[in-house]
Amino acid sequence: MNQYPASIVNLIQQLAKLPGIGTKTAERLAMYLLKTSRDEVSQLARSLLLVKDKVQLCTRCFGMSDEPLCRICSNPARDEGVLCVVEQPTDMAAIEKSGAFRGLYHILHGTLAPMEGIGPEDIRIGELLERIARDEICEVIIATGTSVEGESTAAYLSERLKERPVKVSRIASGVPVGGDLKYIDQVTLKRAMECRHEF
């Protein structure tokens, strides 16, 4: 990168710090930003600063929001009796894109990982239990991932919620739509067989 001035080298280095952006992609982005208008670059810079200044965690679900309550929690059309528990805000966004869920969410911001020193007190399990006790929740859908940590978090939550007067369910997992069985891994096939349902 010695062929570039220090200001461009610095920009490339900063862009390369972003996840999924290697040096070559950072270089392409830097060259694009150099070619684009000053106004567009200013808009990008303002957007970055606005996100840092304005985005906060929703006080109810711990999703990302510009206000104390996110747009989902403040929507009166949502079913307040059904709560979907996810690991991260990106998981909530994925479920929302599907259009399959009309209840509310609770975002844990992680999973249990004892080997890494992450216990129940390190993610938002306490807040979840308080919320279930306080609000009129009739069903909790556990939608953590199928990794070892996601499964152990789901098992822990299921155990903790046994004593509560709520229905507890787990999202199904298995063969994806359009999946060819010969390309599906054995763990996924096993899960699909275990979670089968009647027509």
Indicate the radius of gyration in whole angstroms: 22 Å
Strand content bin: 5-15%
Can you name the CATH architecture of the largest domain? Answer: 3-Layer(aba) Sandwich
**Total tally of structural domains:** 2
Output the number of helix runs.
7
CATH topology term of the largest domain: Dna Topoisomerase Vi A Subunit, Chain: A, domain 2
Low-pLDDT windows of residues: none
Structural class, from helix and strand content? alpha/beta
Overall residue-averaged pLDDT value: 91
Shape: globular
> What is the top-level CATH class of the largest domain?
Alpha Beta
Helix and strand pattern: HHHEEEHEHEHEH
Proportion of residues in helical segments: 40-55%
Report the strand count: 6
The largest pleated sheet is described as: 4 strands, parallel
For the largest sheet, list the strands in their spatial order: 4-3-5-6
Q: What gap, in angstroms, lies between the N and C termini?
A: 61 Å
Account of the 3D structure:
- With 199 residues, this protein is of the alpha/beta class.
- The protein folds into two domains: 6-54, Helicase, Ruva Protein, domain 3 (Orthogonal Bundle); 78-193, Dna Topoisomerase Vi A Subunit, Chain: A, domain 2 (3-Layer(aba) Sandwich).
- 42% of the residues lie in helices and 13% in strands.
- The chain has helices at residues 6-15, 23-35, 38-54, 89-98, 125-134, 148-161, 186-194, and strands spanning 56-57, 64-65, 79-86, 103-107, 139-142, 167-170.
- The strands form two sheets. The protein has a four-stranded parallel beta sheet with strand order 4-3-5-6.
- A hairpin with a 6-residue loop joins β1 (56-57) and β2 (64-65).
- α1 packs across α2.
- The radius of gyration is 22 Å and the shape is globular.
- The mean pLDDT is 91.
